[in-house]
Amino acid sequence: VALDLGRKRKGNDTAFDHMEQDVECLNEMIGRLLIIARLDTAAASVQMIPVSLTELVAHIVHDADFESQKRDVAVTLNASEQIFVHGNAELLHSAIENVIRNAIRYTAPGTPVEVTLQCQEIKGVSSVSLTVRDCGPGIAKSDLINIFQPFYRVADARDRQSGGTGLGLAIADRVIRIHNGTIH
Predict the structure, then answer these.
(1) Could you list the pLDDT tens digit for every one of the 184 residues in the chain?
(2) Is 58 within 8 Å of 96 (Cβ atoms)?
(3) Alpha-carbon span 80 to 100, nearest angstrom
(4) Sign of the alpha-carbon torsion through 33, 38, 39, 41
(5) What's 52's DSSP letter?
(6) Cβ atoms within 10 Å of 12's Cβ, excluding its own
(7) What does pTM read for this prediction?
(8) From CA 125, how far away is CA 150, in angstroms rounded?
Protein backbone atom coordinates (compact mmCIF):
# COMPACT_ATOMS: atom_id res chain seq x y z
CA VAL A 1 0.00 0.00 0.00
CA ALA A 2 1.42 3.39 -0.94
CA LEU A 3 0.12 6.67 0.31
CA ASP A 4 0.99 9.96 -1.26
CA LEU A 5 0.21 12.68 1.25
CA GLY A 6 2.42 15.34 -0.29
CA ARG A 7 1.05 17.96 -2.62
CA LYS A 8 2.39 17.51 -6.12
CA ARG A 9 3.88 20.72 -7.43
CA LYS A 10 3.53 21.81 -10.97
CA GLY A 11 6.44 23.55 -12.64
CA ASN A 12 4.89 27.01 -12.32
CA ASP A 13 2.91 26.84 -9.07
CA THR A 14 3.02 30.44 -7.89
CA ALA A 15 0.12 30.02 -5.43
CA PHE A 16 2.12 27.39 -3.53
CA ASP A 17 5.21 29.62 -3.60
CA HIS A 18 3.22 32.55 -2.19
CA MET A 19 1.80 30.31 0.54
CA GLU A 20 5.31 29.18 1.49
CA GLN A 21 6.44 32.82 1.64
CA ASP A 22 3.43 33.72 3.81
CA VAL A 23 4.13 30.86 6.22
CA GLU A 24 7.79 31.87 6.43
CA CYS A 25 6.78 35.48 7.09
CA LEU A 26 4.36 34.38 9.84
CA ASN A 27 7.03 32.23 11.48
CA GLU A 28 9.46 35.14 11.44
CA MET A 29 6.82 37.50 12.83
CA ILE A 30 5.90 35.13 15.66
CA GLY A 31 9.55 34.75 16.57
CA ARG A 32 10.02 38.53 16.62
CA LEU A 33 6.86 39.02 18.70
CA LEU A 34 8.23 36.57 21.25
CA ILE A 35 11.49 38.53 21.35
CA ILE A 36 9.60 41.78 22.00
CA ALA A 37 7.53 40.15 24.75
CA ARG A 38 10.68 38.78 26.41
CA LEU A 39 12.44 42.14 26.17
CA ASP A 40 9.43 43.95 27.64
CA THR A 41 9.04 41.57 30.59
CA ALA A 42 12.54 40.34 31.37
CA ALA A 43 14.79 43.37 30.97
CA ALA A 44 16.26 42.88 34.44
CA SER A 45 17.28 39.29 33.69
CA VAL A 46 19.28 40.02 30.52
CA GLN A 47 22.84 38.82 31.11
CA MET A 48 25.35 41.63 30.57
CA ILE A 49 29.08 41.09 30.13
CA PRO A 50 31.93 43.13 28.60
CA VAL A 51 31.45 43.15 24.80
CA SER A 52 33.82 44.45 22.14
CA LEU A 53 31.36 46.63 20.26
CA THR A 54 34.04 47.36 17.66
CA GLU A 55 34.46 43.67 16.83
CA LEU A 56 30.71 43.04 16.90
CA VAL A 57 29.96 45.90 14.51
CA ALA A 58 32.92 44.98 12.26
CA HIS A 59 31.54 41.45 11.92
CA ILE A 60 28.03 42.72 11.06
CA VAL A 61 29.43 45.24 8.53
CA HIS A 62 31.62 42.58 6.90
CA ASP A 63 28.65 40.21 6.43
CA ALA A 64 26.34 43.01 5.29
CA ASP A 65 28.89 44.30 2.78
CA PHE A 66 29.24 40.83 1.26
CA GLU A 67 25.47 40.33 1.04
CA SER A 68 24.79 43.82 -0.35
CA GLN A 69 27.08 43.40 -3.35
CA LYS A 70 24.19 42.15 -5.50
CA ARG A 71 22.60 45.63 -5.07
CA ASP A 72 25.95 47.31 -5.80
CA VAL A 73 25.95 48.77 -2.28
CA ALA A 74 29.17 49.01 -0.27
CA VAL A 75 28.91 48.91 3.51
CA THR A 76 31.88 50.49 5.29
CA LEU A 77 32.90 50.93 8.91
CA ASN A 78 34.74 53.88 10.37
CA ALA A 79 35.95 52.97 13.87
CA SER A 80 39.27 54.32 15.08
CA GLU A 81 39.49 52.57 18.44
CA GLN A 82 38.46 49.45 20.33
CA ILE A 83 35.24 50.18 22.20
CA PHE A 84 33.91 47.90 24.91
CA VAL A 85 30.46 48.11 26.46
CA HIS A 86 28.72 46.24 29.24
CA GLY A 87 25.98 44.46 27.35
CA ASN A 88 24.46 41.42 25.77
CA ALA A 89 26.27 40.60 22.52
CA GLU A 90 23.40 38.60 21.00
CA LEU A 91 20.85 41.35 21.58
CA LEU A 92 23.19 44.11 20.43
CA HIS A 93 24.01 42.11 17.30
CA SER A 94 20.32 41.75 16.49
CA ALA A 95 19.56 45.45 16.97
CA ILE A 96 22.57 46.76 15.03
CA GLU A 97 22.18 44.24 12.23
CA ASN A 98 18.54 45.23 11.78
CA VAL A 99 19.37 48.91 11.43
CA ILE A 100 22.18 48.22 8.95
CA ARG A 101 20.03 45.85 6.89
CA ASN A 102 17.26 48.49 6.75
CA ALA A 103 19.84 50.97 5.46
CA ILE A 104 20.90 48.50 2.76
CA ARG A 105 17.30 47.78 1.80
CA TYR A 106 16.37 51.43 1.34
CA THR A 107 19.56 53.04 0.03
CA ALA A 108 19.72 53.72 -3.68
CA PRO A 109 21.57 51.03 -5.66
CA GLY A 110 25.20 51.97 -6.24
CA THR A 111 25.39 54.14 -3.12
CA PRO A 112 27.25 53.45 0.14
CA VAL A 113 26.02 52.64 3.61
CA GLU A 114 28.44 54.19 6.09
CA VAL A 115 28.67 52.94 9.67
CA THR A 116 30.58 55.07 12.18
CA LEU A 117 31.41 53.93 15.70
CA GLN A 118 33.00 56.36 18.13
CA CYS A 119 33.41 57.18 21.78
CA GLN A 120 32.44 60.64 22.88
CA GLU A 121 32.42 62.49 26.13
CA ILE A 122 29.45 64.66 27.02
CA LYS A 123 29.65 66.65 30.26
CA GLY A 124 32.31 64.32 31.61
CA VAL A 125 30.38 61.14 30.82
CA SER A 126 31.70 58.71 28.21
CA SER A 127 29.19 57.36 25.73
CA VAL A 128 29.24 55.45 22.49
CA SER A 129 27.72 56.71 19.26
CA LEU A 130 26.88 54.37 16.39
CA THR A 131 25.71 56.13 13.25
CA VAL A 132 24.35 54.38 10.15
CA ARG A 133 24.06 56.64 7.12
CA ASP A 134 22.51 55.64 3.81
CA CYS A 135 21.39 57.39 0.62
CA GLY A 136 17.75 56.38 0.80
CA PRO A 137 14.60 58.49 0.59
CA GLY A 138 14.50 59.14 4.32
CA ILE A 139 11.48 59.08 6.61
CA ALA A 140 8.85 61.79 6.85
CA LYS A 141 8.86 63.71 10.14
CA SER A 142 5.28 62.57 10.75
CA ASP A 143 6.46 58.92 10.72
CA LEU A 144 9.49 59.38 12.99
CA ILE A 145 7.52 59.16 16.24
CA ASN A 146 6.02 55.81 15.21
CA ILE A 147 8.82 53.86 13.52
CA PHE A 148 9.85 52.12 16.75
CA GLN A 149 6.31 50.87 17.45
CA PRO A 150 5.54 47.21 16.66
CA PHE A 151 3.99 46.65 13.22
CA TYR A 152 4.42 50.25 12.12
CA ARG A 153 5.74 50.54 8.60
CA VAL A 154 6.29 53.70 6.62
CA ALA A 155 3.79 53.88 3.72
CA ASP A 156 6.47 53.34 1.05
CA ALA A 157 7.59 50.11 2.77
CA ARG A 158 4.19 48.48 3.11
CA ASP A 159 4.13 46.51 -0.12
CA ARG A 160 4.86 42.79 -0.13
CA GLN A 161 8.10 43.13 -2.09
CA SER A 162 9.87 45.15 0.61
CA GLY A 163 9.69 42.29 3.09
CA GLY A 164 9.68 42.88 6.81
CA THR A 165 6.92 42.88 9.36
CA GLY A 166 7.40 46.19 11.11
CA LEU A 167 9.02 44.56 14.14
CA GLY A 168 12.75 45.00 13.55
CA LEU A 169 13.02 48.61 14.71
CA ALA A 170 10.70 47.90 17.67
CA ILE A 171 13.12 45.18 18.77
CA ALA A 172 16.13 47.44 18.17
CA ASP A 173 14.53 50.16 20.29
CA ARG A 174 13.93 47.80 23.21
CA VAL A 175 17.44 46.35 23.00
CA ILE A 176 19.04 49.78 23.03
CA ARG A 177 16.85 50.92 25.95
CA ILE A 178 17.84 47.79 27.92
CA HIS A 179 21.45 48.93 27.39
CA ASN A 180 20.56 52.42 28.75
CA GLY A 181 20.84 53.98 25.32
CA THR A 182 18.65 55.79 22.85
CA ILE A 183 17.93 55.21 19.17
CA HIS A 184 16.73 57.81 16.75
Answers:
(1) 444 455 555 555 676 676 776 677 666 666 666 666 666 665 557 788 999 999 999 999 999 999 999 889 999 999 989 999 999 898 899 899 999 999 999 999 999 999 999 998 888 888 899 999 999 988 888 888 888 887 777 765 544 455 566 778 888 888 888 888 898 8
(2) no
(3) 19
(4) positive
(5) E
(6) 7
(7) 0.75
(8) 32
